[in-house]
TrEMBL record:
Family: Belongs to the SUA5 family.
Domain YrdC-like: 15-205
Keyword DNA damage: no
Biased composition (Low complexity): 247-259
Binding site for ATP: 60, 119, 144, 201
InterPro entries the UniProt entry points to: DHBP_synth_RibB-like_a/b_dom, Sua5-like_dom, T(6)A37_SUA5, TC-AMP_synthase_SUA5
Keyword Lyase: no
Catalysed conversion reaction: L-threonine + hydrogencarbonate + ATP = L-threonylcarbamoyladenylate + diphosphate + H2O
One GO term (biological process): regulation of translational fidelity
Protein name: L-threonylcarbamoyladenylate synthase
Record keywords: ATP-binding, Cytoplasm, Nucleotide-binding, Nucleotidyltransferase, Transferase, tRNA processing
GO cellular component, one term: cytoplasm
Length: 259
């Protein structure tokens, strides 16, 4: 494989880099791209071979499936099912931006992101280059562009130091997060698979910001009080609660290394 790094601050290289990245994605290869949070390694979300290559490049197993970046809110219904009104409100308020939401995946989709237990983590990035690429390629499986357990890459050069020749195309566009940011804040992750939205990882969007849009968002580890539980919920639902807790743990693992 012949790796090429493009400086996308130069318009001619930007156009050439996007075209090359699109071709690489179509050929089931991996690429590195900037997002609004950190640099990410990306692959065709609908190609099991490409996703397996991404996971291998990071040194990760199938127990930590990568999230999927989308280019517009309308794509949500094509990839997820049982999307609540509250989840839509958060998407409309914070997409594009630093919010990842976990949904039940559309059962008709032919993809294999790993051991996701029928869920998918979705985000729309607030980055012009990333959105331009997503418009060309469609949804991409994306994780932070670093080996698991190693420092997060803030630019294309740092990503290449860790990932090397396994990546076909590196799209560079300066530092991420952009100059002026004091620290790297990953996206906030919200589990939208239950009756109530629940934060499973704190990040760029604060709990206060989420609750300004949907007051009922639960914090990490916050329990639903008896007064808040629907009257029709039967007492034997404790078994369902246990299953839900297991699913929540899986959700956290699914997006633990998300950009």
């Amino acid at each position: 494989m012949s790796t090429i790094v493009y400086d996308c601050t130069i318009e001619s290289q930007r156009a050439e880099g996007l075209a090359h990245a699109k071709k690489a994605i179509e050929q089931k290869q991996t690429i590195v791209m900037p997002t609004d949070t950190v640099y990410g390694i990306a692959a065709d979300a609908f190609s099991p071979v490409a996703v397996a290559t991404l996971l291998a490049a990071k040194g990760r197993g199938r127990s930590m499936p990568p999230p999927v970046l989308i280019q517009r809110i309308q794509t949500l219904d094509g990839l997820a099912t049982e999307v609540s009104d509250d989840a839509r409100k958060l998407a409309e308020a914070f997409w594009p931006g630093g919010l990842t939401m976990i949904f039940h995946a559309q059962p008709s989709l032919e993809w294999d992101l790993g051991d996701a237990l029928g869920t998918v983590a979705l985000r729309m990035p607030d980055d012009a280059l990333a959105l331009d690429l997503l418009t060309l390629t469609g949804p991409l499986a994306v994780s932070s562009a670093n080996r698991t357990g190693q420092p997060t890459a803030r630019n294309a050069a740092e990503a290449r130091e860790q990932l090397g020749e396994v990546v076909e195309v590196y799209l560079g566009e300066g530092e991420r997060p952009r100059a002026g940011a004091e620290e790297i804040l990953p996206s906030t992750i919200v589990d939208a698979t239950g009756e109530r939205l629940r934060v499973v990882r704190a990040g760029a969007i604060t709990l206060e910001q989420l609750r300004a849009v949907v007051p009922g968002v639960l914090d990490i580890g916050e329990e639903v009080t008896a007064q808040e539980m629907p009257a029709e919920v039967p007492s034997e639902s404790s078994a369902e609660h246990t299953a839900g807790s297991s699913a929540e743990a899986q959700d956290t693992a699914q997006a633990q290394d998300a950009e």
